[in-house]
Amino acid sequence: MNIELADEALEYGTQVRRALEAAGGDELVRKAEAQPAERETIARVLGELGAWELSPRQDAVELEAAAALCRSAGYWAAPYPVAERLARPADLDVDGLVVVADATPMAAVAGIELRWAAVDFDGRRSLVTAAQPDVPPRNSAFVTPLRCTPVDTGGAGDIALALVLPCWTLLGMLDRAIDLARDHVVVRQQFGQALARFQSVQFQLTDAEVERAGVEMLARYALWSIQAGNEQALDDALALRLAAIEAADVVLRVSHQLHGALGFCDEATLSWLSRYSWPVRRLPLGRSATEDLLTRRIARHGLPGLFSEPRGV
Asked: What confidence tens digit (pLDDT) does each residue in 194-235 have?
C-alpha cells in the first residue's frame, strides 16, 4: 500500500495553487460574492491547466492530480464546484456530479450553467437542475436547492470519489487556516511580545496541526482505497468525511480564537475561508448524520485497515 501522491500530482497541485494566486488569490472569493459571474475566472484558469480533461476514474495518477487540484482550490477558498466537476461519472453525459441526501437535495452550484447529475447514498442517480437561490451569495455561499429527475440506480460506484474529492478541498482550507493563524500570532503583539511566544498559543496551534495532519493521512488512504478498487471504499470515504468535519471544527475554532474578533470581520481572510467552508462541511450530510450513516454501514465489522484483525479471528 502506497498512500504517497505521485510527484507529478504534487507538482500539478503546486502549479494550480500558483495560478489561482496569480488570478487573484484571496480576491477570487470576494469578487465572486459581489459579482457571481466572476466565478468563471476560476473555471477558465483551471481549464487552461487542463483540469477539466483529467479522468480520475480511469487513471491513478490523474486521480491523485485531481485530489491535489481540489486541495489547491480549497487553499484559496475558490467558490467554484471543482471537486464536483472532477467527480463526473463516465457513463452519463454530464459535466459534474454531486452527492445528495434523500430529503431536500442541495449543492453549491448556483449560477454555474453546466449539466449536473446527482447520486444518493443508495446509488440512485438523477439529472438535476439548480434552482435560483432566493438569498444572496453572502448568506448562501452559492448553495441552492436541486430539482432531480431520476435516471437509474447504478451509481453505487460513483459515491466514494464524489465524497473524497470535496474532503481534499476542505483539507486545503485547513492548510490555509493553519497558515493564517500561524502568521497572525507571529505578527500580533501582546504584553510586549509576539503571541507565538505564549505556551498556550503554541499548544493550541499544535492541537490544530495534529487534526489537520490526521485528515491528510486519511485523505491519502481514502484515495488509495478508491485506486485499489476496495469494496469498503465508500466506508473509507465516509470515515474521511467525518474526520475532516471534526478536524475543521477544531482548526477553525483555534484559528478564530487566535484572531479574536478580527477573525469575524470581512477584512480578515479567515472570515471568508470559514464561511465558504460551510457547504463542504454540511453537504450532503453534516457531522451527526455522517457519523450515523457510517455507524450503520460498518455495523459490527468495523473499518479494515493496517491494524485490523484478520477476518475470522
From this structure: 877 788 889 999 999 999 999 999 999 999 999 999 889 999
- How far is 17 from 71, CA to CA, in rounded Å? 9
Spatial CA neighbour of 73 closest among 34, 15, 11: 15
User: Which residue is associated with the grid cell 463542504?
Assistant: 280
Angle, helices 27-34/39-48, rounded to nearest 10 degrees = 130
Calpha distance 133→143 (Å, rounded)? 7
What tens digit of pLDDT does each residue of 255-312 get? 999 988 888 888 899 999 999 999 999 999 999 999 999 999 987 677 766 544 443 3
Sequence letter at residue 258: L
- Check if the beta carbon of residue 59 is closer than 8 Å to that of residue 67: no
128's grid cell: 438535476
Sheet holding 106-107, edge to edge: 96-99, 116-119, 125-130, 144-152, 106-107
**How open is the CA angle 21-27-31, to the nearest 5 degrees?**
135
Amino acid type, 107: A
Tabulate helix, strand, coil % of the chain (nearest 5).
60, 10, 30
The Cα–Cα gap between 226 and 228 comes to: 5
Cβ atoms of residues 169 and 189 within 8 Å: no
Interatomic CA distance for residues 59 and 4, integer angstroms: 16
- Residues contacting residue 170 through CB under 8 Å, at least 6 positions apart: 74, 215, 244, 245, 248, 277, 280, 281
